[in-house]
Amino acid sequence: MKANISYYQNKNEFRLFVTKSFSSLIKLKEEKNQYSFNQLVLKILPELRKYVNQRLNIAIKKGRFSKEKYKADDIIDELFITIYDNIEEVEDESKFYVWLFKKANKLLDDVIVEEEFNELFFKNIDDFSKPEWDEMQEEFSTDGDGDLVMIEELDDLSYNHNDYSLNQVFVEDNEKSLSEKLDKDLSEDKVNEHIELVLHNMPSSMRTAFYLYTNQKLKIEEIAEIQKRTIHEVEKLLDDAKKVIQRSLFNRYSND
Q: The domain spanning residue 228 has which CATH number?
């Protein structure tokens, strides 16, 4: 399984583009050129849309509301208005990227009711057999009608395919042997599907912190600002998430 290096390079490049767009947006608003302002905002929204899709999809699959009630476009439309009305809050361009996620997070928190935490899943995570894991995976990969959801259809379900990898989970030297074995035995899709399944059953705060850290490459202190938590709390969320994913991978695949 190969690391997706270009993906991470593009993340950094995209964040730089968003940061450098800040001064142009301020100027366009001062000129009352809302059309050009909106056109530029459209170019800086892709990663925010992915974040919105990720959180909405989890809420939909957990039954917090139907996929017809809210769509990513509803949140994005609100975000357009929020950005235009409040962009002067941003002190300087270096804070703009995180500010955007804070605003998106606030809009999402206003519409998503906190889901119940699946304690039973975590209590039994060391005891699930491989057939049980496979059954959970199949259930996770179906829509509400029981039909298998194909990757090309996921956009219609407010879903975005995330790029999770083993090197995001196994970070210590003493974890390398298992990581290398899994890397050899499992495809990228298998790893990604499994991590998505485990994340789905995590508490919302843990899942969101892990997503922002791995998929959005945000720093721990930035995630703390977005989630309104201390740095120590975010560090613990990330550490707990990695440990749970490690255990689940070990229990499901170590005996293959």
A: 1.20.140
Which of the listed residues 52, 82, 111 is the one where a domain comes to its end?
Answer: 111
State whether 243 and 145 are in the same domain. yes
Cα–Cα distance for residue pair 29/147, rounded to 1 Å: 47
Number of domains in the chain: 2
> Which residues span the domain enclosing 127?
119-253
Whether residue 50 sits in one domain with residue 33 = yes
From the list 122, 123, 194, the residue with the least C-alpha distance to 162 is 194
Dist CA 185 CA 254 (whole Å): 10
Q: b or e along 35-46 (b: 16 or more beta carbons within 10 Å of the residue's beta carbon)?
A: eebeeebeebbe
Q: What is the pLDDT of residue 3?
A: 43
- The Cα-based distances of 248 to 17, 130, 133, 184 in angstroms read 37, 10, 9, 17
Q: 100: which DSSP letter?
A: H
Residues 70 and 146 in one domain: no
Higher-pLDDT residue of 7, 29: 29
Q: Cα(253)–Cα(178) distance, rounded to whole angstroms?
A: 10
- The model's pLDDT over 60-113, given as tens digits with 9 standing for 90+, comes to 777 666 566 677 888 999 999 999 999 999 999 999 999 999 999 999 988 887
Mapping DSSP to helix (H, G, I), strand (E, B) and coil, where does residue 7 land? helix
Asked whether the predicted pLDDT for residue 29 surpasses 90, the reply is: yes
Specify which of 5-9, 173-177, 195-199 reaches the highest per-range mean pLDDT. 195-199
